[in-house]
Amino acid sequence: MKKMKAVLCKKYGKPNVLRWAEVNKPIPKADEALVKIYATAVTASDCLLRGLNVPGAHYFPIKQLMKFGMRVFIGFKRPRNPILGLVFSGVIEDNNTNSNFNIGDEVFGFTGVSRATYAEYKCISAKEMESGEVALKPKNASHQEATAIVYGGVLALYFMRNANIKIGQKVLIYGASGANGIAAIQIAKHHGATVTAVCSQKNFELVKSIGADQVIDYTNKKAVNKLEKYNFILDAVGKNKTSPLKIACKHRLTLNGRYASVDDGFLKIKPSYLLKLTTYFETGNFKAVIDKSFSLKNIKAAHEYVEKGHKRGNVIINVV
User: Fold this and answer.
1) What is the domain range of residue 33?
2) What's the pLDDT tens digit per position in 157-176?
3) What CATH number is associated with residue 57?
4) Could you tell me the sign of the dihedral formed by the alpha carbons of 105, 111, 115, 117, in that order?
């Protein structure tokens, strides 16, 4: 049987639980397509799954119950699927589905529960294709760029879905320099909003370069005084991180304003999400922001870097 390179996670823990290995190359079933993966990424969600970490500062017994739920969902003693990874860009090498995809198509996607993108190959089911987890990648994007827009783009689209952002409205993105925040800024600008980006001062130029109109340094003790009234506020960094400014933000909504956190609820991908990201990128309304790139063999170092919580945009893994 043919082999492929992959990174395995056979127990929960710190980045050193990840192991470089050779495993059997998957063979597509009757309703599956085989994708040769060119690039993937290390996301905050990957780190949470690897370490079995529950988002948010929860206390007993809520945190314990949530951790139990995670074990039921992904595996009690170890991940049920030892190959982690949620996003990818690659080429369809074989296709046994009745989908509109063809062998040789360049595709990108968000795999959801099946994960397994920390590898050279992955099988994608017809059901996953139909649900919108895979799409033709933007024609003008490299595999690295396509991978970089998926995670933050999909999450931002999902958690901003009820924002009903209109031209001239004010939007605040807390955690604006991460993958989710980078995407949220660009989506809000696409809808004509005036965007305030909250991040550290060293990332001011980055968020301005993708459209932020105003910037606030969350480490500044007087930052609360810079807050206005906002039609929509997105906590793009999640509930594991907080500050006096973040707490104050919740009280700065307009009368019918909305507040959302990327830790609220479970992501449900719609077929339109990847198609929207493709359109945004191909029309020049969406940029890929890549902080660092690592080889698949050095993915442990990538996890260590992401877990520090200070990445700018995305951390890409070059598989090929």
Assistant:
1) 3-137+289-318
2) 999 999 999 999 999 999 99
3) 3.90.180.10
4) positive
